[in-house]
């Protein structure tokens, strides 16, 4: 979330395709997250589950002997493979001051208005600055290309293509009404700005249309374009159901990013127009506070919980954020998943489901030894994390892994650590891990792009995590 907008700007300045940069950075973030205890939520959850069952929680660097070599080797593989397997895609962020992406808007010819019954040329629609009339929909008839002598009829739907700011000027033209007039009403275009947002899988927008979500009144912004899997969605935007990883181009005021950056509605918010540079002093203080929190937790001076709470109190005390912003930054869905995970793990253990699953794994793989058993469990976890959240995958596999380890005479703690790392290894889809979803729209990626680069990395994790676990900890 921090690097994506800056990386896009850097790529543009150097003529690099955004699609060649964002996915490798996402994968690097995933790999880097398994180096320490606080790098990813799965290690924290597994640590909590170990403590809940009467074991010592994971220490800060306990996963490092496995995670660090895995991260370094995985990052090297990403750097080698990415240039050859990642295609060049057009990013939704390519709407820029230099050449905005073609923006499409539909306008209706007012019945009885000044354009009803006149030709395209006489109506002044022939030589608009930066805007082109490309289609006329008249009932069930599509007219294209549109000639200058075409006589317009009231009720015709005209499709214009051009720069977003120029196209929006059509709202001021007499005789035309936008098909999305309810979305744009009340906007002072001279004081508005474009922002790009990526919809996450926990957003309340998912599965709802813009009208159902009352986007205009809820978010104080108007969606002027929707990009999905590298393609712009055409048609009446208000009636399009929003999906996870959709990229929305929003016309709003300059305070949009500030209002929504800490909420779960959007994974990533990037300003498309130029914005003032951040104050380097105010940006440095949170980094210093985070560093102190990490040092206190890593050296054992404070527990992770106490160190984190101290950091929050300092941030609030220095008024870097408000209490309301701190509250809004808490994703209750994640809290509920983690809290519910403890109950699920206990239920699987107490009901005998974990033992039953462990016996099944032992029956098919046990004769090949603990290493093969662990490879099988890691493979299951890697696949499971692509269809459920990484935290949920860790919670579901943990009791099975512990029971299986006991059944084959292996160390349950080593199995638990391997599962914690494997649960974060989401490289095959854009929805398995939040960073993958963040870069999906801005990078212009398609689903298959993740598998092209991610499949070799996932295979490496399936083989590498058990081997590194056996070498560094023993089974």
TrEMBL record:
Entry keyword annotation includes Nucleotide-binding: no
Coiled-coil ranges (or none): none
InterPro entries: Cit_transptr-like_dom, DASS-Related_Transporters, Na/sul_symport_CS, RCK_C, RCK_C_sf
Residue ranges of domain RCK C-terminal in the record: 90-176, 182-266
One Pfam family per UniProt: TrkA_C
The entry's keywords: Membrane, Repeat, Transmembrane, Transmembrane helix, Transport
One GO CC annotation: plasma membrane
Gene3D superfamilies per record: Regulator of K+ conductance, C-terminal domain
GO molecular function, a single term: monoatomic cation transmembrane transporter activity
Chain segments annotated as transmembrane: 21-46, 66-86, 287-314, 334-353, 365-385, 391-408, 415-433, 453-471
Subcellular location: Membrane
Topological category with respect to the lipid bilayer: Multi-pass membrane protein
Gene Ontology biological process: potassium ion transport
Protein's name in the database: Sulfate permease, Trk-type
Source species: hydrothermal vent metagenome
């Amino acid at each position: 979330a921090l690097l994506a907008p800056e990386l896009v700007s850097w790529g543009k300045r150097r003529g690099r395709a955004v699609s060649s940069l964002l996915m490798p950075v996402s994968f690097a973030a995933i790999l880097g997250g398994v180096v320490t205890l606080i790098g990813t939520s799965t290690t924290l959850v597994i640590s909590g589950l170990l403590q809940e069952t009467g074991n010592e929680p994971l220490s800060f660097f306990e996963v490092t002997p496995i995670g660090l070599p895995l991260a370094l080797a995985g990052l090297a593989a990403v750097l080698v493979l990415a240039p050859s397997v990642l295609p060049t895609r057009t990013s939704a962020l390519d709407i820029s001051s230099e050449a905005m992406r073609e923006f499409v808007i539909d306008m209706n010819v007012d019945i009885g208005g000044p354009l009803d019954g006149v030709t395209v040329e006489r109506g002044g629609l022939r030589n608009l600055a930066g805007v082109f009339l490309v289609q006329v929909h008249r009932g069930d008839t599509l007219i294209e290309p549109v000639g200058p002598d075409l006589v317009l009829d009231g009720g015709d739907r005209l499709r214009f293509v051009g720069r977003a700011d120029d196209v929006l000027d059509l709202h001021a033209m007499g005789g035309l009404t936008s098909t999305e007039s309810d979305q744009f009403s009340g906007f002072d275009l001279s004081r508005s700005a474009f922002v790009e947002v990526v919809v996450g899988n926990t957003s309340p927008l998912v599965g709802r249309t813009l009208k159902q979500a009352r986007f205009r009144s809820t978010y104080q912004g108007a969606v002027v374009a929707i990009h999905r899997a590298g393609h712009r969605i055409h048609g009446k935007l208000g009636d399009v159901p929003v999906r996870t990883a959709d990229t929305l181009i929003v016309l709003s005021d300059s305070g949009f990013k500030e209002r929504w950056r800490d909420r779960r509605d959007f994974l990533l918010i990037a300003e498309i127009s130029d914005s003032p540079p951040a104050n380097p002093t105010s940006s440095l203080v949170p980094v210093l506070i985070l560093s102190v929190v990490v040092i206190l937790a890593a050296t054992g001076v404070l527990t992770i919980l106490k160190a984190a709470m101290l950091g929050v109190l300092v941030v609030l005390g220095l008024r870097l954020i408000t209490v309301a912003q701190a509250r809004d930054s808490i994703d209750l869905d994640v809290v509920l998943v983690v809290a519910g995970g403890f109950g699920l793990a206990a239920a699987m253990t107490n009901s005998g489901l974990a033992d039953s699953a462990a016996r099944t794994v032992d029956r098919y793989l046990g004769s090949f030894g603990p290493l093969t058993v662990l490879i099988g469990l890691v493979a299951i976890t890697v696949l499971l994390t692509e269809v459920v959240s990484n935290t949920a995958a860790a919670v579901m596999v943990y009791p099975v892994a512990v029971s299986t380890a006991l059944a084959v005479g292996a160390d349950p703690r080593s199995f638990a650590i391997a599962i914690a790392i494997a649960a974060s290894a989401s490289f095959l889809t854009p929805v398995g891990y939040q960073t993958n979803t963040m870069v999906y729209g801005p990078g212009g990626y398609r689903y298959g792009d993740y598998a092209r680069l991610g499949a070799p990395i996932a295979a490496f994790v399936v083989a590498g995590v058990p081997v590194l676990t056996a070498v560094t900890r023993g089974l």
